[in-house]
Amino acid sequence: MLQQHVLEDIQKLQSICEQEEKIELKLNFDMLRSRKQNEVNDFFHYEDNQLVGFIGLYGFGNTVEICGMVAPSYRRKKIFSKLFSQALHNCKKSEYTEILLNAPGHSVSGKEFLKQIPCSFTFSEYQMKWIKKELEDDNPFVTLRSSESDTDLEIEIQVDMECFGMSSAEATAYYEQTKMEAQQHHFIVAYNSQAVGKLRVSYDKSEAWIHGFGILPSYQKLGIGKAALKQVILQQHQLGYDVFLEVEAKNKRALQLYETCGFNSYHVQDYYVYSL
Fold first, then answer.
1. Where are the domains positioned within the chain?
2. What is the pTM of this model?
3. 1-12: per-residue pLDDT in tens?
């Protein structure tokens, strides 16, 4: 587990880097707060007791995402290259079969680094924020309830396999990982009291982020997803949170659903596959 002062150092460096390039870095603080004691997933460079470089690894089944940053005044000193080499060595020791490199779509420094390494663009992801809009909870057959670890393991794993293409082992590992992360609320989507989908909400200060939202394919096109999305938006808004989510740019159907419910894109994250 990362100590509180280290998390604060990361947030301070993040703020400096984001202000410099007018970007938003995806550092997954829900995962940073829940690091296991015996795992090495984070790499740091300090100078004069100040954090000036950081890279984090974020594992999702057999895939690992890499995202990092270096303070503007310390760039062109090979700091990021050194951290990246350490992170890459760690990835290759693990059982990951795919390494994804994440860079904000408008990050000039990120794109310059990516030109120097063997990687290729694979997809973009929109970060979306809900803009207050009148929504009606108008489907009484769709309900949200808290996930129960003892009874909902099977449905959560099934959704990840059928909706997100995970293997049974990947879905199980992902389930165990997300259940350990702090500041999260896991929900089951029910239709006529039958569990048919899931989602989770992570919290960061005044922000509520919707993740892992999926409805079993056999229950899609019945309006269940839209009704569940409306419910979670209204619930989080009433609790005082700004509501956010992320969606892959090529997922036109999901994008249209989110826009219909009041979400607007405000940042783009680009992903590149590293050539192993």
1. 4-117, 130-268
2. 0.87
3. 799 999 999 999
**Is 176 buried (19+), middle (13-18) or exposed (0-12) by CB count in 10 A?**
exposed
Give the pLDDT confidence of 29-66 residue by residue, as tens digits: 989 998 888 889 999 999 999 999 999 999 987 899 99
Looking at domain 130-268, its CATH class is alpha beta
Q: Which CATH class is domain 4-117?
A: alpha beta
Distance between CA atoms of residues 271 and 180, nearest Å: 26
Question: Which burial class, exposed, middle or buried, applies to 187 when counting CB atoms under 10 A from its CB (0-12, 13-18, 19+)?
Answer: buried
130-268 has the same fold as 4-117? yes
- Cβ contact 215:254 at 8 Å: no
